[in-house]
Each structure stands twice: as C-alpha cells, then as structure tokens.
Amino acid sequence: MNDCASLLPTYxxxxxxxxxxxxxxxxxxxxxxxxxxxxxYSTFDEPRWYDQESLVVISALTESDAVLGNEQKxxxxxxxxxxxLKPKFLSLANSPLAMLMGCDMEAIANQIERELGIxxxxxxxxxxxxxxxxxxxxxxxxxxxxxxxxxxxEEKSLNLLGLTPLDxxxxxxxxxxxxxxxxxxxxxxCVAQHCxxxxxxxxxxxxxxxxxSSTGLPLAKALAERFGTPYVTGRPYGLFAExxxxxxxxxxxxxxxxxxxxxxxxxxxSLRVALVGESVTMASMARALAPYGYGQSRIFCPxxxxxxxxxxxxxxxxxxxxxxxxxxxxxxxxxxxxxxRLVAPVSCPFLPLPHAAFxxxxxxxxxxxxxxxxxxxxxVREGIC
Length: 385
Prior knowledge:
Number of strands: 13
CATH topology of the largest domain: Rossmann fold
Order of helices and strands: HEHEHHEHHEHEHEHEHEHEHEEHEEHH
Helix content: 25-40%
Number of domains: 3
Distance between the termini: 36 Å
Number of helices: 15
Oligomer: single chain
Shape: globular
Mean pLDDT: 90
Structural class: alpha/beta
Radius of gyration: 21 Å
CATH class of the largest domain: Alpha Beta
Largest sheet: 5 strands, parallel
C-alpha cells in the first residue's frame, strides 16, 4: 500500500494478480470477499474481461458471516458452483476482510478437494500486497499441481514466464511471440497467456526459461529446482534483444541460470535516465536505452520482486511519493507509466510506457511496441533521439 500518496493510485492488488495469472487455464478462481475485490479487478485491472470468458467469482461474504465465521457457506457455494460449471481446478484467494477474520483457506481448499476430487489450492493473498505477490504465488501453485517430468527434445525449446496483461500489453505479446520464433528456439509454453493446462503439464520439457516480469521469477526458480531448467531474465527491447538471445543460448547449453543480462554499467559522461515501474521491465529498458546515450540509469521500483534485479543505485520496495519526486530530480529522461508525470519535473523529457497494473485501461491506446527496432521508432516519435 502507498504509505504517502496524494496524486498517484496504487498498483493492482495481489487478488487481481491471482485472477490474472490463472485466467486462461480453465479453473475457477474464488475471491473470498463481499464484492469490492472482484469488481475492481474486472472493471480496472483485467483487459481480457470483455472478450474472453473466465471463471473469476466472488464469495459474496456478508457481515454476519464475517462476524460469526461461517466458513461452511463458502465451502457449500464452491461445491455447488464447481459441480455446475465443472472447472479443471479451484483456486481460493483471500481478501482484507477474510484475512482479518483469520479464515483458514488452506483447510477449506483441502476439504473442497476431498469432496470434489479435483485440485483445489489456496493462495496466501490478502488484498494488501501488489499483483506481483499474487501472480507469483499463483504461477508456482499451478505448476506444483500440474507440471510433470517430461523428456526434452533434441530441438532447443523455451518457456516464456511472467505473462499477464497486467505487465505485458497486447501488442507487446504479439511481438514477443514473433521474436521467440526468430532466434532458433521452439516455444514450449507461455505462462500464462495463449496457455492451457496442457502447457503447464509440459513446463519441464523446456531447455531454458525466459523471465519477462518479476511475477515469473519465483516460478523460474521453482522449475530450476524441480527440473533443472536454467532461466534468464529480461525483455528483448531494442538492441538488447540480441544480447538476451545470446544469454538464452548460453543458459540452455550450460544449464546455468543468470540475471546478469540486466546488469548495467554506469558511464559518467552519458545522459541520466530514471525508470519507474516493474523491475524486469525497467532494467531491460535501461539496457536498451544505453546505446542511445543514456548510460547512467537508476530504477525506482515500488513493487515486490526487485531484490534479484536492481543494482546498488536503484531503489526498490518504496512507494512514498515524496521519495519518488526527489528520485526524479536532475535527470535527462524519465521512463514510466504516464501517470508518473504527476510527480515528474515538468521540464524533463518523459517516455510514457503504459502499465495496466497501474493505470488500468486509461492509456492502452498509446501502448508502444518496443521489441527490437520498435524501440528506436518510439524514441524518434517521442522526440527523444
């Protein structure tokens, strides 16, 4: 939660992250809340809501049930709806009210699974953390339940991890899918867009995992431990795309994971750029902007999952608006969601990168394509180079 905010909104919550991560996999996600969490998710956080169906439902928790702790109602409703709708699995997500009640979601999930005979698991969400925490847990939970050991083919294959529309725009996803075909890897699975449970089952067949956002990093670590699959972090923005492809080949051949692709050297005589947002996205942008003269970069990440990505001069896990405003002083370029203009110096050039988890649908019409040559086109169009 933003501890000092007068202008900026908060990021999508962990319950939205759970629902978004599991949206396309054929299960039913139950948010245990009165109605606010699901209405916020469906209205603001989920771009797929109007053109792609999914079983994301609310438990309609009442005041009396909250006070008296009537968990049997949740169990009975889940059993009734699951028998009617026949989902492939159930996931239960907590909300702030259910958390304050001390609702034992794991025990409820175990009871539902015993009675239904289909997988049911609880995610330790509470509506207070960001979408990164919820999506990360959901990705690991679904892989733990459905991924199976698979024999790897001779042809090198790749999993794309951390894919939700909260981080990855529709245009960018299309570009990523085209790029993944262009450098010699066969795509094994995209977790979790253009994805179903058959893809989750064969996650272990990939030779390497590409982590596209911090939501996919815990899953990458889990797959490395379980199947020995190495991983690389980054997005193929601008000229950085070639370096990222080389790192993937090295990881696939050596079996060694690496986040070093996002390491950045600071060039004293170069231009200064401040990047605000999700850690993998902004670290990739920092690498991609360096060839255009922006060799001094600092990242401000208000979200979880930054520890393995950010450097010493970066700032992670801080949401204070005053701290951010101070961070943005004395730079030559700012990169971030357009809403961050509200706390940015008026005179500083600003490269807008709409982030659905922050500004919802407000700026989807100005979404940029940054893969390979697309970055240079955007920089020219924005008058930055």
